[in-house]
Amino acid sequence: MRMHLSAAAAGFLLLAGVGAAAAQDVVIEPQQETIVREYVKKQPLASVQLPGVELNVGSTLPDTVELHEVPSVKYRYVVVDNRTVLVDPGTRRIVKVIE
């Protein structure tokens, strides 16, 4: 009985953790993405190279990378390897890579 209860509790905690991680996913509305795309076209930045940094959602950018503001969008952006990257300024984690 005790073994089954422990396995069930572990399974529940695992599922709860997956649910919490999913709740932290960032959703960029199409309207926000359009605002970013148009702003980046009007305010072009030189593309930077970041050897060793993977451009994946959740990856963290180094403090040496300057993040730029987009009016009316809470995220910041930078152009890396000719790709626009939206970043949470508080955590410096990538929330969206715009192709």
Plain-language structure description:
This protein has 99 residues and is an alpha+beta fold. It has helices spanning 2-23, 30-42; strands spanning 68-69, 76-80, 83-87, 94-98. The protein has a single domain, classed as Roll (Nuclear Transport Factor 2, Chain: A). The protein has two helices and four strands; from the N terminus they run H-H-E-E-E-E. A four-stranded antiparallel sheet has the order 1-2-3-4, with helices on one face. Strand 1 (68-69) and strand 2 form a beta hairpin.
Question: What are the SSEs and their pairings?
Answer:
Blueprint: H1 2-23, H2 30-42, E1 68-69, E2 76-80, E3 83-87, E4 94-98
Strand content: 15-25%
Number of structurally distinct domains? 1
**Helical stretch count?**
2
End-to-end distance: 53 Å
Question: SS-based structural class?
Answer: alpha+beta
Can you describe this structure in just a few lines?
The chain has 99 residues and is an alpha+beta fold. It has a single domain (27-98), classed as Nuclear Transport Factor 2, Chain: A (Roll), CATH 3.10.450.
